[in-house]
Amino acid sequence: MLRLHANAYGSAAVALARCQRDSDMKHLDFRFVLRDASRARHDRLDRMISVLDLGDAEDFARFADVHAACFGALGASDGASRATRRLLSEMIARLSDDLLTLKARPPSARPATPANLDPLAIDYVVEGSRLGSQVLKRRWETSTDPAVRAADRYFGLPADPLGWRATCAALSCLRVDGRRAARVTRDVDALFDLFADACRAALPGARGRDVGRPSNVQ
Hints:
Layout: H1 2-28, H2 30-37, H3 39-50, H4 57-75, H5 82-101, H6 119-140, H7 146-150, H8 161-172, H9 179-202
């Protein structure tokens, strides 16, 4: 009986140590540090996008316009890798096709690209948007508007989880307290702000107001 208790205690201690190790890893792994550091801006952008009804032709056109313009800014960055530029070009082409199907105006002029962007910051936002589009696609699929359902190029882009996994692996290799980690964090913040500013300008009645801006974001 004592041996059973000892074994049980030993197993519990191992499990506790494993939980502690996993918790510590989240503090040591830059992937998780970046996620937490950018959460306020990311959540703000999600709230702004959620205002748009992707089943409505006018709102879906706004969505496509904002993303095409901002993706254009990312693709124009010297920091974007060749593979990321190819992906961005395809995403922009598909969004432009959807705008054409909706008989909306072509994409707006791209906003100014932040200078000296780190490639990992660009990949984090681009690959993250690909994951997010799978969630948004479900909202788009509920549309009863034939024009919206015909604009199926962007949400028809096949999912590629390998890109996200590769980005996460690269982020995990960075020292949490290193100079590059600080640069990536700064650039991810700048890119979320880029999208938020474009989204704010596109929302009806939102121009000039701090729509969705949390108090800790300047």
